[in-house]
Amino acid sequence: MSYAVIRTGGKQYRVEQGSVLRVERFNAEEGAEVSFDQVLLVGEGQSTTVGTPMVDGGRVLATVRRHGRADKVHIIKFRRRKHFKKQQGHRQHFTEVEITGIGAPSMRSV
């Protein structure tokens, strides 16, 4: 089974065909086909292609499943005996995508 390492939203993800992952939110309609061009590594079986820094001609195709917001993260700052307590919450926006294809110049899958 082939896999790839892509970069999107300032983070790196290891993906395989059929996998579902949550990435930083980007503008795309639900059900739309998107392409990730920042492919850092592509591997299939024993062969691995590592980019310098990107794999030339490498791309990963995905379908947008939905947009949403993650669970709330609570941030608490507290100093004992000082009458200081500060609370804050944050919900991160995400886009859920399903990987439909992985391709590199030497591979024939996409």
What does this structure look like?
The protein is mostly beta strands. Helices cover 0% and strands 62% of the residues. The chain has no helices and ten strands. It has a four-stranded antiparallel sheet, with no helix packed on it. A four-stranded antiparallel sheet has the order 3-10-7-4, with no helix packed on it. It is elongated. The chain starts with a strand and ends in a 7-residue tail after the last strand. The model has no long low-confidence stretch (mean pLDDT 92).
Record keyword descriptors for this entry:
110 residues, mainly beta, four-stranded antiparallel sheet, 10 strands, elongated
Concise account of the structure shown:
Helices cover 0% and strands 62% of the residues. It is an all-beta fold.
Average of pLDDT: 92
* SSE ordering: EEEEEEEEEE
Class per helix and strand makeup? mainly beta
Major pleated sheet: 4 strands, antiparallel
**Numbering strands along the chain, what is their spatial order in the largest sheet?**
2-1-5-6
Number of helices: 0
> What is the radius of gyration computed over CA atoms, rounded to a whole number of angstroms?
19 Å
Oligomer: single chain
Strand proportion, as a percent range, falls in over 45%
Shape: elongated
Helical residues, percent: under 10%
Poorly predicted runs of 5 or more residues: none
Give the total of beta strands: 10
Alpha carbon gap, first and last residue: 14 Å
Map the helices and strands:
Layout: E1 2-8, E2 11-16, E3 20-24, E4 33-36, E5 39-44, E6 47-50, E7 59-69, E8 73-79, E9 84-90, E10 93-103
Antiparallel strand pairs: 1-2, 1-5, 3-10, 4-7, 5-6, 7-10, 8-9
